[in-house]
Each structure stands twice: as structure tokens, then as C-alpha cells.
Design goal:
The protein is built from 4 helices and 4 strands, in the order ββββαααα. With 119 residues, the chain is of the alpha+beta class. It is globular and about 40 Å long.
Length: 119
């Protein structure tokens, strides 16, 4: 079961493995983990949405998913990650910008825009 939504990870009525979720503020590569920062097992939806939540914060227009926000915050707190720590958010943003720059990937998110001096 996913550690956030508490559902099995099913695609086309087939049970598929869960994703190993790790703290991206710890490891320099978002595809690999050092092993010390593994937080739990998540379905693909929760894994992706959690990554967006950690990088960009709460998104407007998703009020119908209040249960998910509460469950995700609880999951992060259980894993020892403070979702309200500004230094943690800055570290995740810096890694995002560095990765986009290194790979030459254009991005217009608020983190990349502020680095480029755009508002």
C-alpha cells in the first residue's frame, strides 16, 4: 500500500511495484538514492505529486484534495522532513535549477525565473 493514499498501486487491474521515495534535498541525483534518506513506498501518483508539492508548495484549485495534503504532510513529518522549513525549500529549488541548467532544459518556473532575474 502507498504510504500516503493507502491504496495499492494498480494499472489495468494489475498490481505493480511501488516507487521508493527518497528525500531529494539529500541526494544530488533525483533518480538515485544514497539509501540513508529513503522515506517510504509510494504509488506513482503520490510520488509525483509529492515532488511537486515539495518544490512548488500548495497549488491553488486543488481544494477537493484536502485529505491528500494532510496525508502528505503527515508522511513527510513521519519521515523527519519539515515541509515548512524554508532552508529545505531553498535546497530543493537550488537542485531543480542546477539540474535544469546542467541538462540545458528550459524552465519558466518561479525558481528558475528568480535566478534569471525575472519576476
Amino acid at each position: 500500500m502507498c504510504a500516503i493514499c493507502r491504496q495499492p498501486h494498480v494499472r489495468s487491474n494489475v498490481l505493480v511495484p511501488l516507487y521508493i521515495n527518497h528525500d531529494h534535498a539529500c541526494c544530488p541525483d533525483h533518480h538515485h538514492t544514497c539509501g540513508r534518506c529513503v522515506r517510504g513506498l509510494l504509488c506513482s501518483g503520490c510520488n509525483g505529486f509529492l515532488g511537486e508539492m515539495e518544490l512548488w508548495g500548495r497549488r491553488p484549485g486543488l481544494e477537493d484534495y484536502e485529505w491528500w495534503w494532510v496525508a502528505a504532510r503527515d508522511y513527510l513529518v513521519r519521515a523527519g522532513c519539515d515541509p515548512d522549513d524554508p532552508a529545505r525549500g531553498e535546497a530543493l529549488a537550488a537542485r531543480h535549477v542546477a539540474r535544469r541548467t546542467r541538462l540545458g532544459m528550459p524552465c519558466n518556473c518561479r525558481h528558475c525565473d528568480s535566478l534569471a532575474g525575472r519576476t
